[in-house]
Specification:
This protein has 12 helices and 11 strands. By secondary structure, the protein is of the alpha/beta class. InterPro entries: F420_OxRdatse_Rv1855c_pred, Luciferase-like_dom, Luciferase-like_sf, SsuD_RutA_monooxygenase.
């Protein structure tokens, strides 16, 4: 039986990228038949001393891609809630949604990279406060998008009688993605606000840990009376696919981190499709293929031609 999951590309380059490179990868993603193109929201690479890293703003580039692509859905995985005030973020995402004709999705999390915040002068509160802020941000963003007016009085964020809220094209609003490995607060926040829960396979624990995270989300939905079937469940999968062993190993070497390699799909197109099937068996209906070498457009083309036909339900790019 063929696996049927939404297949997406996640760009997180090791050395950053200029817009021309990001655009080329997004267009290759669209041409190959993927459902969506997502990018990370980082201003610094994993090595803070790497002078070659080229930071770009996530939502500025997504705005460019909204005009330069025609079919793929676009989004962040994930935007750090520490980076932007929620009212501004709601307006930014709604603007990109309008620019794309309703193809945008907002992945949002607490933010985790303290050194990155220090390097760019962004406050980095305690873990507990970051979760508090994330929950308030989602209340503000969804409140503004719901319109026609919004007032919110929280501990960290306040909205005073906004009667001209941002108006995204998608209704009731663009899809929201929340995820992580936490057993309690993350799934509870996702159950309340998310269109999609991301089980964060790359945080470790393998497929069984992913299955348990999905189960935590299901329990959190039940606790507030939400039908768990209303939400998508997704996973991020680092990938190195090759037509030959040498090609596979060359692409695997770019992944770098042992943790990422341990949870990656490394091998032939058939082996990559089998790994995606394992994630589907664990409950994922959406898989983000984590791409590190953004200049290797042949990698995208190979996966599109040899893997997608065996795992993706369609190539329409329409939201499910």
């Amino acid at each position: 039986m063929m696996t049927t999951v939404r297949m997406r590309v996640l760009m997180e380059p090791r050395h950053g990228a200029r817009y021309a490179d990001i655009k080329a990868l997004a267009l290759a993603t669209e041409e190959a038949g993927f459902d969506a193109f997502f990018r990370s929201d980082h201003l610094m690479g994993v090595d803070p001393a790497d002078p070659s890293y080229l930071p770009t703003d996530c939502w500025t580039t997504l705005g460019g891609l909204a005009r330069d692509t025609t079919r793929v859905r676009l989004g962040s995985l994930v935007t750090a809630a520490t980076f932007r005030e929620p009212g501004l973020l709601a307006a930014i995402v709604a603007s990109v949604d309008d620019m794309s004709g309703g193809r945008v999705e907002l992945g949002i999390g607490t933010g985790w990279y303290e050194r990155e915040h220090q390097a760019f002068g962004i406050p980095f509160p305690s873990r507990r406060e970051r979760f508090d802020r994330l929950e308030e941000q989602l209340a503000v963003i969804t409140g503004l998008w719901s319109g026609p007016g919004c007032t919110f009085a929280g501990t960290h964020h306040r909205i005073a009688d906004n009667r001209t809220p941002p108006r995204p094209v998608q209704r009731p609003h663009p899809p929201i993605i929340v995820g992580g490995s936490g057993p309690k607060r993350t799934p509870a926040i996702a159950a309340r606000y998310a269109t999609e829960f991301n089980g964060a396979l790359t945080l470790g624990g393998g497929t069984e840990a992913l299955r348990e995270r999905f189960a935590n989300f299901t329990r959190a939905c039940a606790a507030i009376g939400r039908d768990p079937a209303d939400a998508h469940r997704s996973a991020v999968l680092p990938v190195a696919c090759g037509a030959t062993p040498a090609e596979t190993e060359r692409r695997a070497a770019v992944i770098g981190s042992e943790l990422m390699r341990a949870n990656a799909a490394i091998g032939s197109p058939a082996q990559v499709a089998e790994r995606i099937g394992e994630l589907a068996d664990a409950g994922a209906d959406t898989v983000y293929l984590h791409i590190y070498d953004i200049h290797d457009l042949d990698h995208i083309a190979l996966i599109g031609a040899e893997v997608l036909p065996h795992v993706a339900p369609s190539r329409t790019g329409a939201p499910a």
